[in-house]
Amino acid sequence: MTIGPIEAVGAGSPIGGLAPIGGLEATESTTSTNGADFAAMLAGGLQKVEAAQDRADNLAVQAATGQLADVHEYMIAANEAQLTTQLTAAVRNKAIEAFNEIMRLQA
Amino acid sequence: MSGLFGALGIAGTGLTVYRKWLDAVSDNIANMNDAVATNADAFQARYIVARTADYGSGTEGVQVGGAVLSGKTDGRIVNEPTNPLADEDGNVKYPDIDLGDQMSQLIMAQRAYQANLAVVDRAKDAYQSALQLGKG
Protein backbone atom coordinates (compact mmCIF):
# COMPACT_ATOMS: atom_id res chain seq x y z
CA MET A 1 0.00 0.00 0.00
CA THR A 2 1.54 3.28 -1.02
CA ILE A 3 0.34 6.29 0.83
CA GLY A 4 1.00 9.27 -1.38
CA PRO A 5 0.95 12.81 -0.08
CA ILE A 6 -2.43 14.47 0.01
CA GLU A 7 -3.01 16.93 -2.75
CA ALA A 8 -3.93 19.69 -0.30
CA VAL A 9 -7.66 19.22 0.05
CA GLY A 10 -9.01 22.39 -1.51
CA ALA A 11 -12.21 22.04 0.44
CA GLY A 12 -12.83 25.60 1.48
CA SER A 13 -11.38 27.38 -1.51
CA PRO A 14 -14.29 27.38 -3.94
CA ILE A 15 -16.50 28.89 -1.25
CA GLY A 16 -14.19 31.76 -0.47
CA GLY A 17 -16.73 34.07 -1.93
CA LEU A 18 -19.48 36.41 -0.98
CA ALA A 19 -16.71 38.92 -0.32
CA PRO A 20 -18.53 41.63 -2.32
CA ILE A 21 -20.66 42.18 0.77
CA GLY A 22 -18.23 45.01 1.46
CA GLY A 23 -20.07 46.87 -1.30
CA LEU A 24 -22.51 48.17 1.27
CA GLU A 25 -20.22 51.17 1.64
CA ALA A 26 -21.92 52.55 -1.42
CA THR A 27 -25.15 53.03 0.49
CA GLU A 28 -23.30 55.26 2.90
CA SER A 29 -24.12 58.23 0.72
CA THR A 30 -27.87 57.99 0.31
CA THR A 31 -27.64 60.10 -2.82
CA SER A 32 -26.28 57.20 -4.88
CA THR A 33 -29.23 55.07 -5.90
CA ASN A 34 -27.19 52.53 -7.78
CA GLY A 35 -29.25 49.33 -7.54
CA ALA A 36 -27.02 47.41 -9.95
CA ASP A 37 -24.37 46.93 -7.24
CA PHE A 38 -26.62 44.88 -5.03
CA ALA A 39 -27.98 42.85 -7.93
CA ALA A 40 -24.46 42.08 -9.14
CA MET A 41 -23.40 41.15 -5.62
CA LEU A 42 -26.35 38.81 -5.23
CA ALA A 43 -25.69 37.21 -8.61
CA GLY A 44 -22.03 36.68 -7.69
CA GLY A 45 -23.08 35.20 -4.37
CA LEU A 46 -25.53 32.85 -6.04
CA GLN A 47 -22.77 31.63 -8.35
CA LYS A 48 -20.65 30.80 -5.31
CA VAL A 49 -23.58 28.88 -3.82
CA GLU A 50 -23.94 26.97 -7.06
CA ALA A 51 -20.23 26.12 -7.05
CA ALA A 52 -20.47 24.82 -3.48
CA GLN A 53 -23.52 22.73 -4.33
CA ASP A 54 -21.85 21.39 -7.48
CA ARG A 55 -18.91 20.24 -5.36
CA ALA A 56 -21.20 18.49 -2.90
CA ASP A 57 -23.16 16.92 -5.76
CA ASN A 58 -20.00 15.61 -7.42
CA LEU A 59 -18.89 14.04 -4.15
CA ALA A 60 -22.36 12.53 -3.67
CA VAL A 61 -22.08 10.92 -7.11
CA GLN A 62 -18.63 9.62 -6.15
CA ALA A 63 -20.10 8.16 -2.96
CA ALA A 64 -22.88 6.46 -4.93
CA THR A 65 -20.49 5.02 -7.49
CA GLY A 66 -18.00 3.87 -4.89
CA GLN A 67 -15.22 6.24 -5.89
CA LEU A 68 -15.31 8.36 -2.75
CA ALA A 69 -12.02 8.05 -0.85
CA ASP A 70 -13.03 10.02 2.24
CA VAL A 71 -16.47 9.98 3.80
CA HIS A 72 -15.83 13.21 5.65
CA GLU A 73 -15.00 15.04 2.42
CA TYR A 74 -18.57 14.67 1.22
CA MET A 75 -20.04 15.51 4.61
CA ILE A 76 -17.94 18.68 4.86
CA ALA A 77 -18.78 19.74 1.29
CA ALA A 78 -22.48 19.15 1.99
CA ASN A 79 -22.25 21.19 5.19
CA GLU A 80 -20.47 24.02 3.38
CA ALA A 81 -23.08 24.03 0.64
CA GLN A 82 -25.84 24.13 3.23
CA LEU A 83 -24.22 26.97 5.18
CA THR A 84 -23.57 28.97 2.01
CA THR A 85 -27.18 28.54 0.95
CA GLN A 86 -28.41 29.60 4.38
CA LEU A 87 -26.16 32.66 4.26
CA THR A 88 -27.50 33.65 0.85
CA ALA A 89 -31.08 33.20 2.05
CA ALA A 90 -30.31 35.33 5.11
CA VAL A 91 -28.87 38.12 2.94
CA ARG A 92 -31.89 37.97 0.63
CA ASN A 93 -34.35 38.03 3.54
CA LYS A 94 -32.60 40.99 5.10
CA ALA A 95 -32.66 42.86 1.78
CA ILE A 96 -36.37 42.24 1.32
CA GLU A 97 -36.99 43.22 4.93
CA ALA A 98 -35.23 46.52 4.33
CA PHE A 99 -37.16 47.07 1.10
CA ASN A 100 -40.49 46.40 2.82
CA GLU A 101 -39.53 48.73 5.63
CA ILE A 102 -38.92 51.52 3.10
CA MET A 103 -42.21 50.75 1.33
CA ARG A 104 -44.09 51.14 4.59
CA LEU A 105 -42.72 54.66 5.10
CA GLN A 106 -45.66 56.36 3.37
CA ALA A 107 -48.30 54.55 5.38
CA MET B 1 -8.20 27.37 2.03
CA SER B 2 -9.51 29.57 4.77
CA GLY B 3 -12.52 30.93 2.99
CA LEU B 4 -15.84 31.88 4.48
CA PHE B 5 -16.11 28.60 6.39
CA GLY B 6 -12.39 28.00 6.92
CA ALA B 7 -12.59 25.84 10.03
CA LEU B 8 -14.55 23.20 8.14
CA GLY B 9 -11.91 22.82 5.43
CA ILE B 10 -9.02 22.88 7.89
CA ALA B 11 -10.59 20.21 10.09
CA GLY B 12 -11.19 18.28 6.88
CA THR B 13 -7.45 18.15 6.16
CA GLY B 14 -6.95 16.77 9.68
CA LEU B 15 -9.59 14.11 9.06
CA THR B 16 -7.84 13.07 5.86
CA VAL B 17 -4.47 12.74 7.61
CA TYR B 18 -5.88 10.63 10.45
CA ARG B 19 -7.88 8.51 8.04
CA LYS B 20 -4.59 7.74 6.27
CA TRP B 21 -2.94 7.05 9.61
CA LEU B 22 -5.72 4.55 10.40
CA ASP B 23 -5.12 2.98 6.98
CA ALA B 24 -1.40 2.67 7.70
CA VAL B 25 -2.00 1.04 11.09
CA SER B 26 -4.52 -1.41 9.66
CA ASP B 27 -2.00 -2.26 6.92
CA ASN B 28 0.66 -2.91 9.56
CA ILE B 29 -1.66 -5.13 11.60
CA ALA B 30 -2.86 -6.99 8.52
CA ASN B 31 0.73 -7.80 7.51
CA MET B 32 1.84 -8.68 11.02
CA ASN B 33 2.16 -12.39 10.29
CA ASP B 34 3.75 -12.28 6.83
CA ALA B 35 6.33 -15.06 6.95
CA VAL B 36 9.16 -14.79 4.41
CA ALA B 37 12.26 -16.82 3.68
CA THR B 38 15.25 -15.89 5.81
CA ASN B 39 17.14 -14.47 2.82
CA ALA B 40 14.25 -12.07 1.95
CA ASP B 41 13.35 -8.75 3.55
CA ALA B 42 10.64 -8.88 6.21
CA PHE B 43 7.64 -6.55 6.02
CA GLN B 44 8.33 -3.21 7.67
CA ALA B 45 5.75 -1.25 9.64
CA ARG B 46 4.71 1.96 7.94
CA TYR B 47 4.09 5.21 9.79
CA ILE B 48 2.47 8.41 8.55
CA VAL B 49 4.37 11.67 8.90
CA ALA B 50 2.01 14.58 9.52
CA ARG B 51 3.24 17.97 8.33
CA THR B 52 1.67 21.38 8.64
CA ALA B 53 0.51 22.91 5.40
CA ASP B 54 1.99 26.38 4.93
CA TYR B 55 0.07 28.55 7.34
CA GLY B 56 -0.96 31.92 5.95
CA SER B 57 -0.22 31.02 2.34
CA GLY B 58 -3.83 30.08 1.73
CA THR B 59 -3.28 26.40 2.46
CA GLU B 60 -3.86 26.04 6.17
CA GLY B 61 -4.30 22.67 7.75
CA VAL B 62 -2.26 19.53 7.93
CA GLN B 63 -1.08 17.14 5.29
CA VAL B 64 0.67 13.83 5.02
CA GLY B 65 4.35 14.60 4.48
CA GLY B 66 5.04 10.99 3.59
CA ALA B 67 5.30 7.53 5.04
CA VAL B 68 8.35 6.20 6.86
CA LEU B 69 9.22 2.56 7.23
CA SER B 70 10.08 1.41 10.70
CA GLY B 71 11.52 -1.78 12.06
CA LYS B 72 14.31 -3.89 10.72
CA THR B 73 14.15 -5.82 7.48
CA ASP B 74 15.85 -8.58 9.51
CA GLY B 75 12.54 -9.12 11.27
CA ARG B 76 12.25 -11.90 13.81
CA ILE B 77 13.75 -15.29 13.03
CA VAL B 78 11.33 -18.00 14.08
CA ASN B 79 12.00 -21.74 14.00
CA GLU B 80 9.15 -23.22 11.94
CA PRO B 81 10.39 -26.32 10.14
CA THR B 82 6.93 -27.13 8.77
CA ASN B 83 6.67 -23.80 6.96
CA PRO B 84 7.24 -24.26 3.21
CA LEU B 85 9.40 -21.11 3.25
CA ALA B 86 11.72 -22.44 5.95
CA ASP B 87 15.45 -22.63 5.16
CA GLU B 88 17.59 -25.70 5.79
CA ASP B 89 17.75 -24.88 9.53
CA GLY B 90 13.94 -24.71 9.66
CA ASN B 91 13.84 -20.93 10.19
CA VAL B 92 11.52 -18.30 8.66
CA LYS B 93 11.40 -14.57 9.09
CA TYR B 94 8.47 -12.65 10.57
CA PRO B 95 7.98 -8.85 10.55
CA ASP B 96 9.32 -6.91 13.53
CA ILE B 97 5.88 -5.50 14.45
CA ASP B 98 4.66 -5.15 18.03
CA LEU B 99 0.87 -5.49 18.22
CA GLY B 100 0.69 -3.46 21.43
CA ASP B 101 2.51 -0.60 19.74
CA GLN B 102 0.17 -0.76 16.75
CA MET B 103 -2.86 -0.75 19.06
CA SER B 104 -1.71 2.44 20.77
CA GLN B 105 -1.11 3.98 17.33
CA LEU B 106 -4.65 2.92 16.43
CA ILE B 107 -6.11 4.60 19.50
CA MET B 108 -4.14 7.81 18.84
CA ALA B 109 -5.31 7.95 15.24
CA GLN B 110 -8.90 7.21 16.18
CA ARG B 111 -9.01 9.81 18.94
CA ALA B 112 -7.43 12.44 16.70
CA TYR B 113 -9.97 11.63 13.99
CA GLN B 114 -12.79 12.06 16.51
CA ALA B 115 -11.27 15.34 17.72
CA ASN B 116 -11.29 16.71 14.18
CA LEU B 117 -14.88 15.55 13.72
CA ALA B 118 -15.78 17.43 16.88
CA VAL B 119 -14.17 20.56 15.40
CA VAL B 120 -16.28 20.19 12.24
CA ASP B 121 -19.41 19.78 14.35
CA ARG B 122 -18.73 22.77 16.59
CA ALA B 123 -17.67 24.95 13.65
CA LYS B 124 -20.94 24.15 11.87
CA ASP B 125 -22.90 24.98 15.03
CA ALA B 126 -21.00 28.26 15.39
CA TYR B 127 -21.57 29.30 11.78
CA GLN B 128 -25.23 28.43 12.06
CA SER B 129 -25.54 30.48 15.23
CA ALA B 130 -23.96 33.40 13.41
CA LEU B 131 -26.60 33.05 10.70
CA GLN B 132 -29.33 33.24 13.37
CA LEU B 133 -27.98 36.61 14.50
CA GLY B 134 -30.72 39.22 14.71
CA LYS B 135 -33.52 36.80 13.92
CA GLY B 136 -36.69 36.45 15.90
Outline of this structure?
Chain A has 107 residues and is an all-alpha fold. Chain A is built from two helices and no strands. The longest helix of chain A has 33 residues, at 71-103.
Description:
The complex is a heterodimer of chains A (107) and B (136). Chain A is built from 2 helices and no strands. Chain A is mostly helical. Chain A has a domain at 38-106. In chain A, helix 1 packs antiparallel against helix 2. Residues 9-13 of chain A have low confidence and may be disordered. With 136 residues, chain B is of the alpha+beta class. Chain B has one domain (6-131). Chain B contains 2 helices and 4 strands; from the N terminus they run αββββα. In chain B, the strands form 2 sheets. A two-stranded antiparallel sheet of chain B has the order 1-2. The longest helix of chain B is centred in the C-terminal third of the chain and has 33 residues, at 99-131. Chain B is elongated. Chain B starts with 5 loop residues before the first helix and ends in a 5-residue tail after the last helix. The mean pLDDT of chain B is 88. Chain A binds chain B through residues 1-6, 8-18, 70, 72-73, 75-76, 79-80, 83-84, 86-87, 90, and chain B through 1-6, 8-13, 15-17, 19-20, 23-24, 27, 46, 48, 53, 58-59, 61, 63-67, 117, 120, 124, 127-128, 131.
Main features:
heterodimer; A: 107 residues; mainly alpha; 2 helices; 58% helix; 0% strand; B: 136 residues; alpha+beta; two-stranded antiparallel sheet; 4 strands; elongated
Task: Note the topology.
The complex is a heterodimer of chains A (107) and B (136).
Chain A lengths: L35 H29 L6 H33 L4
Chain B lengths: L5 H25 L14 E8 L9 E9 L5 E4 L11 E4 L4 H33 L5
Antiparallel strand pairs in B: 1-2, 3-4
Helix pairs in contact in B: 1-2
